[in-house]
Each structure stands twice: as C-alpha cells, then as structure tokens.
C-alpha cells in the first residue's frame, strides 16, 4: 500500500552521511505514538502490532477527542495515530487543534472511511498521511515511521488522485473543491447537525456557519442540506 515520500522533509534531522533520522520533539527520546480510536478492540490490535516494534513506543491511548487533546498536553510524542470518527468530536477538529497547538506532532489518520473520499481533504487539513484500517501491519508501521521523519504517506489510490489532480484529469471527488473548514462543516451538515449546533461546536457565529453553508452549496451545485446528506451517503462519507 505504501508509496515513497511525497512531502517536505524539513522537520527531519540528518546524520553527517545524509541519512534521514526521526524528527525530534522536545522531551521525546524515541518514536513515541499516541493512539486515538473509540473502539477498544481496534486499540488492542494496534497496541499488539505497534508494541512489538523495538523502535516505537505507545505513550497514551485515547477513546475520544478530548482525551486526545489532554494526552497531547501530558505526553510528548512524534505521531498522533488518529481515527476520524470519535464520539465527542470529529477527528478533523482534533487535527485542526494539533496543527495550531502542536506543530511538531505528525498526524497520521487511520480510518475506515474510503481513502479516495477523505484522503485529499485530510491532507489539505494538515495531516501527514492517511492509512486505511484495512491496510496490512507492514503498511501501518511504514506509515508511522515515514510521517515521523517529516514525510507524507499516502496509499496507491490516494497517490493516483494526487497525480490526476496535477495532470488536470478531473478525477477528484466533487467535495475535494472544499476548503478544510468547508469540508469540516459539510460533514456536520451531512450528519444532520443544525447550523446553530455547528456554530457552538466550532466556536463560530451562526452567521459565519450560514455563510460557509451557502458557499458549500454553491461550490457543489446543491440547493439543500438533503442534497448534502444524499451525496455523503452515496460517497461513503458518513460514519
């Protein structure tokens, strides 16, 4: 599943021979990982896979977004392994917080959502990579090590989308035209969350969210929230 590095490597240090090493975070002496997934069985499987590696250490496990934010404050890490679907807040919300407050942490999305549908948007949102939950253990471990070095990690399906985008072939999903914030609000509208509730969750004004909603509908050629939900269902964008 894995591909080679696709992004900047500025955050990685190098040896005298030019060999790339793990990007260092203050207070971190090894490749430390925080797991964020609300399913205990998934965390147990990840713990077994990652824990068997001598160079990777799990420093915290979280079952919600708020637990993840708290863990980031108390456990310095290189990589946040993050599920998109969490019980209290979206993984996209967690991603945005990390990019603002923990710039040295690489966020690797591990999700059951289709890579082709969510991959482009999470990369634009600042994620270092996207791994499907159907990926093999070797791919997951490769992805963790790769993003810890300051690189990007994408699977072959997402890599094809990126290449097609550069070539102007127009095979990207329609929602790829949305900005990070627009996609965040799009997902909440698709789930049936009201404009007022979205404003409260994202600490925005109702007017601002309404403006985003109008922009989303215009960009995607839609008229109602029902159109958004229908599109999300057809494209497997809902939990």
Characterize the structure shown.
The chain has a 5-stranded parallel sheet with strand order 2-1-3-4-5, with helices on both faces. The protein has 2 domains: 31-164, 3-Layer(aba) Sandwich (Rossmann fold), CATH 3.40.50.2300; 174-234, Winged helix-like DNA-binding domain superfamily/Winged helix DNA-binding domain (Arc Repressor Mutant, subunit A, Orthogonal Bundle), CATH 1.10.10.10. It contains 10 helices and 5 strands, in the order E-H-E-H-E-H-E-H-E-H-H-H-H-H-H. With 239 residues, it is of the alpha/beta class. It has helices at residues 40-51, 65-74, 91-101, 115-124, 137-148, 156-167, 180-190, 195-202, 206-220, 225-234, and strands at 31-36, 56-62, 79-82, 106-111, 129-132. Helices cover 46% and strands 11% of the residues.
**CATH arch. level architecture of the largest domain:** 3-Layer(aba) Sandwich
From the 3D structure, determine the CATH topology of the largest domain. Answer: Rossmann fold
Distance between the termini: 23 Å
Helix/strand order, N-terminal first: EHEHEHEHEHHHHHH
Q: What's the tally of helices? A: 10
Radius of gyration: 18 Å
CATH homolog superfamily of the largest domain: Response regulator
* Main sheet: strands, sense, barrel: 5 strands, parallel
Number of strands: 5
């Amino acid at each position: 599943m894995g591909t080679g590095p696709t992004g900047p490597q500025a955050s990685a240090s190098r040896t005298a021979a030019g060999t790339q090493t793990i990007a260092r975070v203050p207070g971190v002496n090894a490749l430390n990982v925080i797991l964020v997934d609300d399913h205990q069985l998934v965390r147990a499987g990840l713990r077994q896979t990652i824990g068997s590696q001598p160079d990777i250490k799990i420093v915290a496990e979280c079952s919600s977004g708020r637990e993840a934010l708290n863990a980031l404050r108390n456990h310095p890490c290189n990589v946040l392994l993050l599920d998109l679907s969490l019980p209290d807040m979206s993984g996209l919300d967690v991603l945005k917080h990390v990019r603002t407050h923990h710039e040295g942490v690489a966020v690797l999305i591990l999700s059951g959502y289709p890579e082709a549908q969510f991959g482009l948007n999470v990369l634009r949102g600042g994620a270092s990579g996207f791994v499907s939950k159907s990926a093999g253990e070797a791919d997951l471990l490769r992805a963790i090590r790769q993003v810890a070095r300051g690189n990007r990690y994408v699977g072959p399906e997402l890599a094809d989308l990126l290449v097609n985008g550069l070539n102007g072939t127009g095979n990207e999903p329609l929602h790829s035209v949305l900005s990070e914030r627009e996609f965040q609000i799009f997902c909440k509208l698709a789930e049936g969350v009201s404009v007022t509730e979205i404003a409260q969750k994202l600490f925005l004004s109702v007017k601002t969210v309404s403006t985003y909603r109008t922009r989303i509908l215009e960009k995607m050629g839609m008229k109602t929230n029902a159109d958004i939900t229908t599109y999300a269902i057809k494209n497997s964008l809902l939990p």
